[in-house]
Amino acid sequence: MSENVDFKWISEDSDVPLSSVYLYNRTGEGPRSYKVGRRYWVTRADYDQSLREKRGQA
Questions:
Q1: What global pTM score does this model have?
Q2: Domain around 44
Q3: Is residue 46 within 8 Å of 56, Cβ to Cβ?
Q4: CB within 8 A of 30, min separation 6: which ones?
Q5: What is the total count of domains within the chain?
Q6: Does pLDDT of 2 surpass 80?
Q7: What share of the chain in percent tops pLDDT 90?
Q8: Phi/psi at 50 (nearest 5 deg)?
Q9: Which residues are CB-contacts of 35 (< 8 A; sequence separation ≥ 6)?
Q10: Percent of the chain that is helix, strand, coil (3-state, to 5)
């Protein structure tokens, strides 16, 4: 089973403000996410893939 991370973790790991993580989610620039309750989650694999694409290593 794949590890899941929330937007707060992504913000801390990537040193990007949490508000920007939510903005990227709304505009489709961030990794695929899903909402459970009040929190948004991303699989770690999708997060890592998104970082590689942003760095041009896809």
A1: 0.85
A2: 4-54
A3: no
A4: 10, 21, 24, 42, 50
A5: 1
A6: no
A7: 84
A8: -60, -40
A9: 41
A10: 50, 20, 30
